[in-house]
Amino acid sequence: MSDVSLPTPVQAMVDAINAADTEAFVAAFTPDGFVSDWGNVKAGPAGVRAWAGSDAIGAGARMTVLSAETSGDTTRIRFGWSSRVFNGESDGIFVVRDGKLASFTIPPSH
């Protein structure tokens, strides 16, 4: 991880991915939180766990935050990703609510 400063819930999710800790990953989200990966939405603890298993932790992912900007409850990042599913850079948008992640969105790149 670089020296980019992130809100605690965002950092917790990044740390969980890099530690291959599915329980910590799920715990970083609110009960109704979701991951939206190019429009494919996985919601609630079961959905978040499923995404972690298929696209992140279960795929051996490592995430490096390259840049971040936070305004209010929204943090936008540029990150590097290495896994058996995807390798490269992407954008990410986090929304924090009540000290946890309400959402993590990876918008389609064009």
TrEMBL record:
A Pfam family assignment: SnoaL_2
InterPro entries: NTF2-like_dom_sf, SnoaL-like
Ranges where the SnoaL-like domain occurs: 10-103
Name of the protein described by the UniProt record: Nuclear transport factor 2 family protein
Source species: Microbacterium istanbulense
